[in-house]
Amino acid sequence: RAPRIYTRTGDAGSARGRRGGGHGTHRGSGGPGPASERLPRAFPKGFSSTFTGERRPKGDQIFEALGATDELSSAIGLAGEFSTEKGHTFVEQLHKVQCMLQDVGSNIATPLSSAREAHLKRTSFSEKPVLELEQWIDSYSEQLPPLRAFILPSGGKSSAALHFSRAVCRRAERCVVPLVQAGEADPNVAKYLNRLSDYLFVLARYAAMKEGKEEKIYVKPEP
């Protein structure tokens, strides 16, 4: 399984580098700990490092894609909490998706132009998760009524949160596509995000149906 994302950044709230915890985590304000637990020396402001050790500006497309992927996982986490309160059985799928997004981030953080064989073995991303999403999409789609109008994000908290996750997913996909086109990320990463947005849309509709919530539809305003 691919490693978590470890990018070293130049601000005070940065990740702990390759020696530390998961992506975007750092030790809290409980005072300095042992030397081995302290934050690494920061890079000059405005730069971060990829998993391959390559330093790039923080505005680089790689870090834009990583940030969008992190936001997506957070949005799905919120949707999962709302869905748990309603007893939805698909919550375990959402947790699995969050784990897969860690692998997506690992691949993004390992640009192919500077990756060595050891990096590639740890951060490769296969087509298998894409096929699994397609199976889930088919399963839920078969249980839904036909779609006859444009649906607005609605249908209760679970559904609305899943719609929001879908929108974030589409942005993450837009960030990743240029990396794939430049040969810096695996095409399966973009495919996964593309199918994930469809999955989240179908799941939002399914959640509304199971909760008996009304889906609001687009109505053209009167001129």
Automatic annotation (TrEMBL):
Q: In which organism is this protein found?
A: Oceanites oceanicus
Residue stretches making up the Cobalamin adenosyltransferase-like domain: 45-207
Give the quaternary structure: Homotrimer.
Region Disordered: start and end of each range? 1-42
Family, per entry: Belongs to the Cob(I)alamin adenosyltransferase family.
Q: Gene behind this chain? A: Mmab
Q: Which GO terms describe its biological process?
A: cobalamin metabolic process
Basic residues bias spans: 16-26
What is the name of the protein in this document? Answer: Corrinoid adenosyltransferase MMAB
